[in-house]
Amino acid sequence: MRLLVTRPEPDATREAETLSALGHEPVRAPLLEIEFLNCVPLNLDGAQALVITSRNALRALGIHPERERAVQLPLFAVGEATAWAARQLGFGEVTIGPGTGAGLPPIICREVHPDNGPLVHLGAEKVAFDLKAALEDSGFELRRTILYRSHLVETLSESTVEGIRNGTIDGVLLLSPRTARAFVRAIERHGLVTQAKALVCYCLSKAIAEAVVPLGLASRVSQYAREEDLIALLESDA
Questions:
Q1: Among candidates 164, 93, 101, which has minimal Cα distance to 130?
Q2: What pLDDT score was predicted for residue 223?
Q3: Does domain 34-150 correspond to CATH entry 3.40.50.10090?
Q4: 125 contacts 148 by C-beta, under 8 angstroms
Q5: Nearest of 35, 4, 30 to residue 154 by alpha carbon
Q6: Rounded to whole angstroms, how far apart are CA atoms 231 and 28?
Q7: What DSSP string describes 75-132?
Q8: Quick one: pLDDT band at residue 97, thresholds 50, 70, 90?
Q9: CA-CA distances (angstroms) from residue 130 to 8, 125, 173?
Q10: How confident is the model at residue 96 (pLDDT cuts 50, 70, 90)?
Q11: What is the structure's pLDDT at 77?
Q12: CATH 3.40.50.10090: which residues of the chain?
């Protein structure tokens, strides 16, 4: 299948390589650009553990001056891929979550106690799940440290527009609600609403599928919020 890859770089290239190895034809069309904020203090004093919900936060941490201090702390990682990247960065004690931010609070509450100190969430300026509110309800202090911003890409390349217009693109992979909303806006901006109805949206969650409802496209939702499960889903359609 010929598939749009909408993740920001460098994840777009990595995902495209995975799809190519499976015999698909990926078309890179990142709908977000990442800006790292390297001079922001991590606010680690007294912290008992870190929480990281994206690999972009780890990439930002990798070039941060406080990296060596940070990797000495225990880490709660949102899922397996983030945990693997954290170990590569130098973290020794990593607890793996189920793949979504919403699934982390029960694990955190089971593993650590509020009396042992604050938690520090290293992440983006905009988050899909309010981890701070969820953990504060359980008595934790959560400090949010913003290590990167994501900027929307408002347009698609000419070749991508032509591919959708000519019906030569079969589907699109969407891994976040924000990316899905950006995709909807880009399709509307280019006047492709009718032509886009031929696409199948492969979505990592129900919330993502709901974001593309305005386009009236067929959507397939991964059973689990993991990239490998999403790719297995599209493989079942190939």
A1: 101
A2: 86
A3: yes
A4: yes
A5: 30
A6: 16
A7: EEESSHHHHHHHHHHT-S-EEE--SSGGGHHHHHHHH--GGG--EEEEEESS-SS-HH
A8: very high
A9: 22, 12, 24
A10: very high
A11: 96
A12: 2-31+154-237, 34-150
Architecture of the domain defined by 2-31+154-237: 3-Layer(aba) Sandwich (3.40)
Alpha-carbon gap, residue 118 to 44, rounded angstroms = 9
pLDDT score, position 227: 86
User: Measuring CA to CA, which residue among 147, 149, 126 is closest to residue 43?
Assistant: 147
- The encoded tokens of residue 212 equal 């593309």
As a whole number of Å, the end-to-end CA separation of the chain is 7
Judge residue 38's burial from the number of C-beta atoms within 10 Å of its C-beta, 0-12 exposed, 13-18 middle, 19 or more buried: exposed
How is residue 61 written in tokens?
Answer: 């941490």
CA R_g for the chain: 19
With beta carbons less than 8 A apart as the criterion, state whether 219 and 188 touch: no
Side chain identity at residue 39, one-letter code: C
